[in-house]
Amino acid sequence: MEKQVSVAKHEKSILPGFRNKINQAESTEDVKKFFTYTIRELLVRIFEDDTYQDYDAIELSPNAAPYYKIRKDVTPPDEFSALWNNSDVQRVIADLAETAIHRYRHLEKKPEKTTTKIRN
């Protein structure tokens, strides 16, 4: 049995900023952007390198659970799969995606708020 690794300290460091950004998001595109930036920041902190700086590597996927996609071609296979299978990183990303999806759906139901923002 392999040792279980926790990324909770990284989660705690990004969570307040993430919640603040998501709550201030005024459009569904803002939500997607903030989610992507936050997950990139999380992965950079965990791996302590800039492998995940490619903006298109991570995206919010609002149409189906688990509500996010991470491109396989930008993940170091051994290092990433070891972390993925032996830590709580899946749960952390899923929780952040769930939070983002709630805000996304709220804004999607009220597009007039987005339109007002764009006009001003």
Automatic annotation (TrEMBL):
Protein name as it appears in the record: Uncharacterized protein
